[in-house]
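Technical note accompanying the year-one report. For the benefit of new consortium partners, we illustrate the data format agreed upon in the data management plan: each record pairs a sequence with a C-alpha cell string. No post-processing was applied to the example shown here.
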Amino acid sequence: MLNGKKIIVVLPAYNAEKTLEATYREIPKDIADEILLVDDCSQDKTIEIARKLGIFVVSHKQNLGYGANQKTCYREALKRGADIIIMLHPDYQYPPKLVMPMAALISTGSFDAVLGSRILGGYALKGGMPLYKYISNRLLTFMQNICLGEKLSEYHTGYRAFSREVLLTLPLLENSDDFIFDNEILAQIFYFKFKVGEITSPCSYNSDSSSINFKRSVVYGIRVLVNTLKYMFQRKKIGHYKIFDNKNGKKIELNDD
C-alpha cells in the first residue's frame, strides 16, 4: 500500500509454469497488497504452481485470449477493492521490482496510468527483442504519436499500471479479446484525457518469454493502424465507435457475478 491506496498486481497467465515462481518472488510484497493470477486455460502446471505460492487464482474454463484475460484481471482486482492495478506478465520478461515506482507515480496523483517502456534507455535490443519487432515498434509508435498527438516512447509494452478511475471509466468490454486490446486501451486513455507517464524498464527475451509470431505480429500491426484511424475519425466526428463511447459502451460492472 502507498499513500493509503490498495495495490493489486495482476498476472495474465497462459502456460507460465517455467517463469511464474521467479516473477512472483521478485514482486515487492511490502507494496503489493494482493497478487492475482488469471489463467487462460493453460495446458501446463501454471495453476498448480500459483496455488502452491499462495497466489489468488481465477481460471478460464476455455482459452479466451489475451484481451479477455486482462478484462477478467481488472474486473476481479476492482471487485477486491484495488485503487491501483499493475499488470505484470508472469513470463519474467519485465522486472517485477518496478511495481513500486509505477504504483508511486499513480498513488501521488502524478499520473492516471504508467507504462514500463523498453525503449527508454535503449533496453529493447539489449534485452533480446527481435530486430523486426523493434523496427515495427518504432514505426508504429512514430505513426501513432503523430496521429494521436502524443509523445510516448512506445505503445506496445505489456507492463502497465492503472488507477481505479481509469478502469471504471473506459468502456473496456468493447475492446478486443486478442492482443490488440493493449493498443485499444491506450487509445481510450488518451481519448478520455487521462494522464500517462512512462518509466524505463529493462526487458529479457528468452525461450520462455511469451511473444506472438511474425504472422500474428503483422496482423497486430494492421489492427493498430485500424485502431488509430478509428480514434482519428471519432475525434473528427466522422465516425462513432463504442470503444470511445463511455455512455453507451460496455464497462466493467462490479455487481456482475
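Partners are asked to follow this layout when depositing records. Strands lie at 7-13, 34-39, 56-59, 84-87, 113-117, 160-163, 196-200.
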